Fold:
Amino acid sequence: MTPIRKHAIALAILGAANLAGSAIAGCPGDKVVADGKGQKMVNFGPKDVTDVVIEATDLSTQKVALPGYQFRARRLTIKPGGIVPWHSHGERPANIFIVEGAITEYRSTCAVPIEHPAGDVTAEAGQLSHWWRNNTNKPAVLVSSDIVPTPMTDKEGGM
Structure:
């Protein structure tokens, strides 16, 4: 098992422990498909989304010793009609907690869109690409915790 995979598992366990009482959300079992057979890639850019890094830890300085990686937490606020553009999690395992509002996820590994109400937690790792849209009339607030290659943090939002 690779160091990234070990830490993604630890992150998932920690996230689940800290979010006790939240629903673990994902694609319905009978709708899971091979990567690329689910929701299709779109070319939407970011729209009405604010992405703020609220904390980051340089993992090269920690006991796990992962040079070139950060453990990061971000708050995303997506206005009604807002979009988080298509992105991959091949290099960046993450857990997303929907704090308030609701959001729809369009996953490359799911045949149907996934509705995430407040309280849901979803894991994003491996061969997964997706995008999100707020199809409601209220803002959605998400907290994302991820392990991210340091060069990726130079991109706005690190999506």
